[in-house]
Design brief:
The chain is mainly β. The protein has no helices and 22 strands.
């Protein structure tokens, strides 16, 4: 038996002010609040005579406030545009969970847990980007400065609470060359620095049971890590896509397990290094007026390392989609994707084959 309720409130405000023909300022404010409550009870009677019972109470509150101001100014004489802005965001998540498990009326200490976790996150950012056209070229460059404050609080394990402050710079740059604009031929080079932050649950130090011999513990010492992404992309005839990309990061997330008396305790750590060189291609095929197909695929060479351990491996994927015009106005859409097993630094990653079919028909066209 399960029961629950969800209450939420969302308020937003948007203001736009124009400065002549070439400038405009947008101000956006938003407040969001959501409260969830979930109650569950389970009873299992086995042929052996054993009786297992469990009850769960979960209460969660999410609050998000956002203030954002964006300014855009166009420079028609040089076909340029400046985008700049400021953003502030405050997030708070209050999460309470109480799970009780019983076997033949006796409390299962290993399967029961209680957790009260409060996560607060503040982000303050300033950013600017400028782009302009020159003959057959288009240039763009920008930077984002971001300050992030993270304050996770565990009422169950207060001795492991850790507050963090980060200030980072995220530059980006790109150049495009229009080989033939009318025919849709162009090529571009780009660079972008990004950041991957740990999810709030990754920082929660509570110990959760995932199976009879498996437990997971959050790591409040996890740090965000930066990613550097380079890509070269070519479009032909508005539809063919070829891309070569390189991505590199230090300190990525890696889940490791430790065996203690036959029980596996897993925790996420900051990985040493990772890099990937990949190629991607997308090719459309038309078979008359009633069949449109698109085939795509990718291949990558990857490198992972953690302390003294390292591994290089390759990965590939093939896929495609199609649209078939059938009699009586019906349309059949299909897509598929397949990737083999990849051997990671520790263990393997499985990708399930994917296939979808969708049949549709429009009625009362034009109305």
């Amino acid at each position: 038996m399960s029961d629950g309720k969800v209450d939420f409130l969302n308020l937003s405000f948007l203001y736009l002010h124009r400065f002549g023909k070439n400038g405009e300022l947008t101000f956006h404010a938003e407040a969001y609040k959501q409260e969830d409550e979930d109650r569950q009870e389970r009873v299992y009677d086995y042929a052996s005579g054993e009786k297992q019972e469990s009850s769960f109470l979960g209460e969660e509150s999410n609050t998000l406030y956002t203030l954002k101001a964006d300014y855009t100014h166009r420079f028609p004489s040089v076909k340029g545009k400046l985008d700049a802005g400021l953003k502030a965001q405050w997030l708070e998540n209050d999460n309470y969970n109480n799970y009780l498990a019983f076997v033949n009326g006796q409390k299962d200490e290993y399967g029961s847990y209680m957790d009260h976790y409060i996560y607060k996150d503040q982000v303050y950012a300033a950013y600017a980007k400028y782009s302009f056209d020159w003959k057959k070229f288009k240039f763009n460059a920008g930077v984002r400065v971001e300050h992030n404050r993270v304050a996770p609080y565990s009422a169950i394990n207060p001795e492991r609470n850790v507050r963090s402050n980060y200030t980072d710079f995220f530059p980006e740059a790109g150049i495009s060359y229009f080989i033939d604009k009318e025919k849709g031929h162009n090529t571009s080079l780009s660079y972008q620095k990004g950041v991957q932050r740990p999810l709030m649950g990754m920082l929660n130090p509570v110990v959760l049971r995932q199976g009879e011999y498996n437990y997971y513990m959050g790591n409040p010492l996890l740090k965000p890590y930066a990613t550097h992404h380079f890509s070269w992309t070519t479009h032909l005839a508005h539809q063919y896509i070829f891309r070569v990309a390189y991505q590199q990061s230090d300190g990525g997330f890696l889940q490791l397990g430790e065996n203690k008396d036959g029980v596996i305790y897993s925790t996420t750590y900051n990985q040493g290094k990772s890099s990937s060189l990949s190629a991607y291609v997308s090719v459309p095929v038309r078979l008359g007026k009633k069949v449109r197909l698109t085939f795509d695929g990718s291949f990558s060479r990857n490198y992972l390392s953690y302390k003294e351990d390292e591994r290089s491996y390759t990965h590939w994927r093939v896929g495609g989609s199609g649209m078939f015009m059938l009699p009586a106005g019906f349309q059949l859409m299909a897509d598929f994707s397949y990737s083999p097993v990849s051997k990671m630094l520790y263990g393997e990653m499985y990708f399930h084959p994917l296939a979808n079919l969708r049949l549709s028909k429009s009625f009362l066209k034009g109305k």
